[in-house]
Design goal:
single chain; 60% helix; 7 helices; two-stranded antiparallel sheet; 107 residues; globular; mainly alpha
Length: 107
């Protein structure tokens, strides 16, 4: 289990997700989601070109990608990469509000 979480975290960092996002969202949950998305992306990529078309996404086991394809495809190329998916997921992650300081203020 540790090995899978570690590998998923490496993928998250490699895809450019900032560390604050993974810390705020929970490393385990984010790593798990990225791992599943990555595996399903590869399985749906029928022509193995590293890109998904809308038809590949609909036919593959990637319902999240299929339903958000147009938002993920920001450049309107008709194809998306894993990096496009990661950027879309990153744009949906909101950092938690900063905790109020509990330290006493000097007089």
């Amino acid at each position: 289990m540790y090995r899978i979480a570690r590998a998923a975290l490496i993928v998250a960092v490699g895809l450019g997700l900032p560390m604050w996002a993974s810390a705020q969202a929970g490393v385990g949950r984010l790593a798990s989601k990225l791992d599943v998305v990555s595996k399903n992306f590869d399985a749906a990529d029928r022509d193995h070109d590293g890109l998904l078309t809308k038809d590949e996404a609909k036919a593959g086991n990637v319902p999240f990608i299929a339903s958000h394809f147009d938002q993920i495809d920001r450049e309107h190329r008709g194809k998306i990469s894993k990096q496009d998916v990661a950027a879309y997921l990153q744009s949906r992650v909101r950092p938690a509000p900063a905790a109020a300081s509990t330290a006493a203020k000097p007089d």
